[in-house]
Amino acid sequence: xxxxxxxxxxxxxxxxxxxxxxxxxxxxxxxxxxxxxxxxxxxxxxxxxxxxxxxxxxxxxxxxxxxxxxxxxxxxxxxxxxxxxxxxxxxxxxxxxxxxxxxxxxxxxxxxxxxxxxxxxxxxxxxxxxxxxxxxxxxxxxxxxxxxxxxxxxxxxxxxxxxxxxxxxxxxxxxxxxxxxxxxxxxxxxxxxxxxxxxxxxxxxxxxxxxxxxxxxxxxxxxxxxxxxxxxxxxxxxxxxxxxxxxxx
Amino acid sequence: xxxxxxxxxxxxxxxxxxxxxxxxxxxxxxxxxxxxxxxxxxxxxxxxxxxxxxxxxxxxxxxxxxxxxxxxxxxxxxxxxxxxxxxxxxxxxxxxxxxxxxxxxxxxxxxxxxxxxxxxxxxxxxxxxxxxxxxxxxxxxxxxxxxxxxxxxxxxxxxxxxxxxxxxxxxxxxxxxxxxxxxxxxxxxxxxxxxxxxxxxxxxxxxxxxxxxxxxxxxxxxxxxxxxxxxxxxxxxxxxxxxxxxxxxxxxxxxxxxxxxxxxxxxxxxxxxxxxxxxxxxxxxxxxxxxxxxxxxxxxxxxxxxxxxxx
Amino acid sequence: xxxxxxxxxxxxxxxxxxxxxxxxxxxxxxxxxxxxxxxxxxxxxxxxxxxxxxxxxxxxxxxxxxxxxxxxxxxxxxxxxxxxxxxxxxxxxxxxxxxxxxxxxxxxxxxxxxxxxxxxxxxxxxxxxxxxxxxxxxxxxxxxxxxxxxxxxxxxxxxxxxxxxxxxxxxxxxxxxxxxxxxxxxxxxxxxxxxxxxxxxxxxxxxxxxxxxxxxxxxxxxxxxxxxxxxxxxxxxxxxxxxxxxxxxxxxxxxxxxxxxxxxxxxxxxxxxxxxxxxxxxxxxxxx
Lengths: 249, 311, 288
Description:
The complex is a heterotrimer. Chain A is an alpha/beta fold. Chain A contains ten helices and ten strands. Chain A has two domains: 1-80 and 160-224, Rossmann fold, CATH 3.40.50.300; 91-157, no CATH class. Chain A is globular, with a radius of gyration of 18 Å. Chain C has a domain at 22-216. The interface between B and C is large, with 42 and 42 residues.
């Protein structure tokens, strides 16, 4: 499997706060990677830096053989990098259909609004929102908006998808539904990196786990190994959880 | 092309019939109506579609007036002068837009307002070219006789209005219009789905300026004498906004109706309260903003308005 | 080029500019409202000073005692009754509203006082002071001193008084201030009233030096804009920094490329700052 993303000593600081410290890692095509760590560890900053939302201070980002360290967000999107937001950002006045159609229209070259809307309907059906296609995005519930966000990213036909806490604010039934969707996308060959706090979901879906703490990469490997890593237990999981988890494995 | 677009074109078509119904006064009023509607429709592209509160209309109006004026004094024919002013404004606004539209909210509003001041001062100081504070006399361009003159300018301004309306309708039906709507609602998200916001905003700014410039040029030829404080008047920036607010920001039909209603009110006020007419205008603005935040269109057309917005 | 005279002129003018801008900056920083009536308030204050001197022989340096409370009440009322209704509306609405109000006030002034320029000439005239080859007219000196006093009073107010701390709190984080028990509505009105009072007092000072006419209101407003963008919003130090920078640039510009380009230069500088450093020299990012 070829490498699709490589970060080389990526660093980013915000006026004295070092958000990312020389993070180096590689993502291979088809992987489903869980990105975990305590709050403020730099997970969202990592995604922001890769996608061009915030510029890196040093280091490089290499995507499918191309240096994309300095690209703008819209360029990253067109290259096949898609991401969801922790706090969902729909186009409130548009219908659900148009929200997804917008993503299909602008992320791909040379499509028309008409064909974008047709594609959009298919994506809405995938996430189970086809019944709400004509509804304005502002009237959807949070869970529906999260699925809408997912549909939008799919409409961009991405090669690499970043999911930033898709499950935040959802109840267990909604979480299960979202997890099933992610399983399906992974089965279809999508490379996914998911920032997640729900370990249940991470262990369910991910083939690999990366742990960030204070901007540094402290663990990177198979779920089983990472969970037993003392540094990870110390920084994030906690002894109680580690013991419970070890008992189940 | 939907119903509201057709209604807009119909309205413009009706205006074309004006010369059959009135004399010189009606023609003057009609020409001003076409001018106002052009300014309002143009502003709507950047203010209503893209959501950027531009106060730069006066800058491009004055630019067009002086560009055309100078070209006319150099001997070029009217149509060529206006076309060149239009193209120059398109280019200038496109370039300026790429820079200024990085600003949001208040900062953009002020920057666009400052543009008016800067251009006015530049024109004021370029005395050799523009006559500076003493103004510019523009040679007579059209045919003989006052009425023939008035009819000519009416139809010329009407043609500019028609062109503007067609541009606006074209934009709202196109990928550009869709993109501007995305930018208006959530610019960050728009970038994230692959939309080059800077490009789209520059285009919008350019389009909002070019017909304003053409109208300005035509205005200069019409009145035969312009000076900086006359054409670079902040009111040319504020009036289109008031018209748009009156009719309903975003909707081209609403904005055009707002322009006509505004002109009607202005004429009434001018005729009866000339000394305090700016005060009355101010009062109108205040009352409008406090009582009718969504414009006149929201009063009568209720459900239709909801669909009219940003169409 | 940087002669002592030029520097002193810039210093004096800079303080006056800061005084013009400080009320505007406060309102913009705290209420996020660009108060386009500001210029007209200044002119009105100047007319007040003129009238008080002309008919009651009260010199301008005492006129502020009348001006301050009067303008505060007007400002407070205006905000509470009118502006508060659109306080959450987009930029467009608040800007256009204050523009409309300014049209009313300006037109009223022209109607009442006519547009001719008046000059408050002090009897006996104060003359100029000459120190080490630098000449400063005494009226400017007094105005500068009062301007500094005014900004000092505001600074003290914001730092030490309860109301002042509440204003700063609202400026820094409105929602948090609400949670702390601050009556935001009343603070908004107070801040606006304060801004109006400062404008009125600035007008009183301007009457000492410049001719008075309703036609000048937009140039005062323009200066206030530029000072705020250059120096940063909502702070006294920002207004001073912005005022001094503007005066310095204008002074150097006047000496090198001629005084007629001064306004162009200041607005061009405004645009440059908006693009490069919108928060100004001393401001914080995030005041849209």
